[in-house]
Amino acid sequence: MILPTSLTATAAALRSGQLDAFAYIATICERLDEVDPQIHALLPEQDRRGRLKADIAALQKRFPDPGSRPALYAIPVGIKDTFRVDGFATRAGSRLPEELFAGAEASCVSMLKAAGACILGKTVSTEFAYFEPGETRNPHNLKHTPGGSSSGSVAAVAAGLCPLALGTQVIGSTIRPAAFCGIVGFKPTYGRIPIDGLVQCADSVEHVGYFTQSVADCSLVAPILCRDWRGEDSLPLERVPVLGVPEGPYLAQASDEALTAFEDQLTLLKNAGYRVCRVSVFPDIERIKRLHMRMVFAEMAQVHAPWLARYKTLYRPRTLAALHEGQTVSDEERAQGRAGRALLREVLEAQMKEADIDLWVCPATQGPAPEGLASTGSPMMNLPWTYAGLPAITVPAGLAANKLPLGLQCVGAAMTDEQLLAWVAPMADILASQLYIEEYTT
Q: Does this model's pTM top 0.85?
């Protein structure tokens, strides 16, 4: 089910005309017809192929000169079904009437269109980007979850249905599924990608993220989506970053298998010249988790207040439980949750400065994707970084005993997204070389 796909190479070939856009889209549609009935990444659409042909024709008319074509010319993009997209219904993975979620197109979707992208379609989301899963399956093993809540987007990229897809993250909905499906997931600093035009889960920690198959591909998209992106010329002289390991109860949440793989990853990086500094952090991880989750529940309840009483029977159990808990959160507790975001960020960045750490590194998940589709897996390895609003990326970093992917999560200081991508790219190459050995020698 997995198909290696280079966004960077494909985009360059489409812009130059070396790759015919109509032929490429036809290939994508054939792949979709073959694979998606098994992984269920995209929502159904009548005459998708005809619409995409019309979109390509419009792009060719708009950009007849290859030299003037924008970065993502004719690239098909999957859009999580919590984003509003002109011409598409929005359901947010729910059974509620789509009319409730109508509104202006999300700015980030419009940014992708302005860069030449065409919309492959809406991708499956868990119900309201929380824990009730859809039908999407992990392309590495159809018996396992792809993770959530951006389930369809991650599966579509991993399976080669599109080289780019949008997701969101309120706890771990970009980083976790990317790790489970063996691709790159990037969640920029809180606020760097606008969150308007979303059926939001919790705006205090609502992040837009996206999926590609490499860090280079991720870097191609970042200037298009991220506010005030600084080019390579603005980065300091190239050097090897110091890696911080967040020791303590947070790290202990990972499984023995994930921790063993993580230590192997650190050994690879140390052998390549990286310095690793182990620092005790998150001694109050349970308090952080409670602050984050209670704040999320309160904001979910506020979002759904206009709909809950009338459509209560249409909500699924875990979503309903979260909304009911959110109704019990006081204004004071919610304010404490919001204030805690900046406090945690300050603590983490102070620890980075004191220990001369450039990046935090840790397992992206507690282990490989769980078997079955009833759960999307735990996001607890992602929660504190999301709560603090720090930029995070996961890259493929190994295989579990069951041959499912494991990811390495790398986290930078706030607003250092540019440096994070620049530093992680060579690290990903080092880990990929070992991953290749694991895949073809076991």
A: yes
